[in-house]
Amino acid sequence: MKKIEFKNVSLKFGDKKVLNDFNLEINEKDKILISGKSGKGKSTLLKILLGFENIDDGKIMIDGKDLEELNMFEIRQIFAYVNQDITFRIGRIKDILKEISKFSGNDFDGEIDSNLMKCFEFDEKLLDKTIYDLSGGERQRLGLIMAIMLNRPVYLLDEITSALDTELKERVAEYFAKTDNTVIAVSHDDVWMKTGNFRKVVL
């Protein structure tokens, strides 16, 4: 995955224009923070990349290929998406992670990398719990761990720090600032810019 290009992209919902001739070039390993007031289309940008929303005008190119030419399987091989309202299937955390590992190069054998657990303050004892036993912040951290396990070239992160305390927000931002993957984060938090690695795009 080398480049994502938004070329004169426009989108409206009813009479409301969300994006108007929007242009953005994202190169491999770039770190982008999408910022702006509510209703400006921040989350919509991520949904467009995932194929959940169709644009009215313009083009989106991925490595020179029109996004519309890609099928859902190809899109899922590019993007790992995490939002603030993560939905999980019912079951033990350990079993969910085992299932996720089947779709990635990371074989989960019941243990998560200790550095990852420490970084996201995810207690190993939680692996035997169910989704219903987790708090909102723990669910967000689990979603991040699952995205990392998928090992996709591009992370799409939508307000992923909303349920975390300040110290953990900073730790999460630092982790993604240092990754070799491309990162597109939607957030109101300034912790992303404090890392020094993100470029802010204001809608």
Structural summary, described in words:
- The protein is of the alpha/beta class and about 200 residues long.
- The chain is built from seven helices and nine strands.
- It has helices at about 40-50, 70-75, 95-100, 115-120, 135-150, 165-180, 190-195, and strands spanning about 5-15, 15-25, 30-35, 55-60, 65, 80-85, 155-160, 180-185, 200.
- The strands form two sheets. Strands 6-7-8-3-9 form a five-stranded parallel beta sheet, with helices on both faces. The chain has a four-stranded antiparallel beta sheet with strand order 2-1-4-5, with no helix packed on it.
- The longest helix has 15 residues, at about 135-150.
- It is globular and about 50 Å long.
- The model has no long low-confidence stretch (mean pLDDT about 85).
How would you describe this structure in keywords?
single chain; 203 residues; alpha/beta; 5-stranded parallel β-sheet; 4-stranded antiparallel β-sheet
Structural class comes to: alpha/beta
Strand content: 25-35%
Radius of gyration: 17 Å
Note the run of SSEs as H and E: EEEHEEHEHHHEHEHE
- Major sheet strand order: 6-7-8-3-9
> In angstroms, what separates the terminal alpha carbons?
25 Å
Ranges where pLDDT stays below 50 over 5 or more residues in a row are none
Q: Quote the average pLDDT.
A: 86
Helix fraction by DSSP (H/I, runs of at least 4): 25-40%
Give the number of DSSP strands.
9
The shape is globular
The largest β sheet comes out as:
5 strands, parallel
Number of H- or I-type helical stretches: 7
